[in-house]
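Researcher: Go.
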Amino acid sequence: MDFIAPDTWGSAIYLWIVPMVLGDAIFPPIPSEMVVITGGALAADGHANFWLILLLAAFASWLGDMAVYLLFKRRVSHVLDRWAWGRKVHRGIHEAIAKAGRSSTYGAIIGARFVPGGRLTTSSAAGIANVSVRGFSLCAGLGAVLWAVWQVGLGYFTGSTTKLPFWASSLIGVGVGLVIGVVVGLIVTRRRGNRSPVDEPFDGDVPQPE
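Model: Structure:
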């Protein structure tokens, strides 16, 4: 099997998008953007369906946001504190919220996903702040569509303009997206706090059984 052959990736990309984008909602280091941008580059070469890639990316983004939001809205996030890795994730969420501030406004729910780690921060903060399910769902859906259009479009644009192999176009697209995301993130997080502005308790400092 040739792992850089477009036919190989074209048949597998659909299986990767949903789990990668879903996982990114909870664990931001997962490179979901790379997978979606690669899908766009493959579509530019005619090895993937542009609209199907777009639909899968948007749906997975919305579903992941809703899962995180409901987890914190139902106050069951303390389940994370049963394991060492969960406490690290939970503490990281509060640290991210401390940097970005309370991100429960509808505009932040839509736009913060373009900033690295923004999905996790806004979804968890919105759940803690008891933003309405309907309001969050609509904003998360709109944000998911805009994010998918941007990511898939970025891959498609680089693929169709550079005429390079899909993997090279994907790397260029990821680089451009990362630079833009970092710049936006620096602008958004200029006013950083020292502690999370949300009042949700967690057991991150209390030893727990492994």
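Model: Residues 191-199, 201-210 have pLDDT under 50 and may be disordered.
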